[in-house]
Amino acid sequence: MDIPSGVIPAIRKMKDFDHVLKTSHETVIFLETRLDQLKSLVEYTKRSNKQALVHFDLIQGLKADEYGMEFLIREVKPDGILSTRGNIISLAKKHHLLSIQRLFLIDSSALEHNLQLIKRLKPDCIEVLPGIIPSMIQEIHAETKLPVIAGGLIKEESDIEQAIKAGAVAVTTSNPKLWN
């Protein structure tokens, strides 16, 4: 399981899928898609020699339980998952999938709760949203010693540069203009 690096395209709209397959990016994240489309999307992604990551919480028709994870592993066969849910991160680790814990920086209480959850679950990586707060990227990495991916509200090249400079190993964005 390789931890992704650099810019990671996050697909929200199917019109962006063909575009991302033609890029040199090694990893693709699927957001907000339907379960019946997911298997073929992952297959096409892998045929293009790219790593396919699925945001478990945003797949319509996929239940966040052990049966949902078993279905995802047996039928869809992604390389990894992203989730805000502790049970999904635990199941991904149990099944040897790359596990990325999504962490929303709402307030200091949410940060403290999520840091405790991360220390207990030990995901492979953390995605911090919004990813435009360099000091938080540094703090979360220092606290957890885990690779941090920045995502959310990434609108400019400078946002990517600042996140990487702050220690993020990668930056997720659904803005195709930033995939180059």
UniProtKB/TrEMBL annotation:
Q: Could you confirm whether the keyword RNA-binding appears in this record?
A: yes
Gene of this entry: glpP
PANTHER family per UniProt = GLYCEROL UPTAKE OPERON ANTITERMINATOR REGULATORY PROTEIN
Tell me which SUPFAM superfamilies the record gives: GlpP-like
* Keywords for the protein's UniProt record, in alphabetical order: Glycerol metabolism, RNA-binding, Transcription, Transcription regulation
Q: Which Pfam families does the UniProt entry name for this protein?
A: G3P_antiterm
Please identify the protein, giving its name as recorded.
Answer: Glycerol uptake operon antiterminator regulatory protein
Please describe what this protein does. Regulates expression of the glpD operon. In the presence of glycerol 3-phosphate (G3P) causes antitermination of transcription of glpD at the inverted repeat of the leader region to enhance its transcription. Binds and stabilizes glpD leader mRNA.
Q: Which GO terms describe its molecular function?
A: RNA binding; transcription antitermination factor activity, RNA binding
Cite a single GO BP annotation.
glycerol metabolic process
Q: Does the keyword Thylakoid apply?
A: no
Q: Kindly give the Gene3D superfamilies that the UniProt entry links to this protein.
A: Aldolase class I
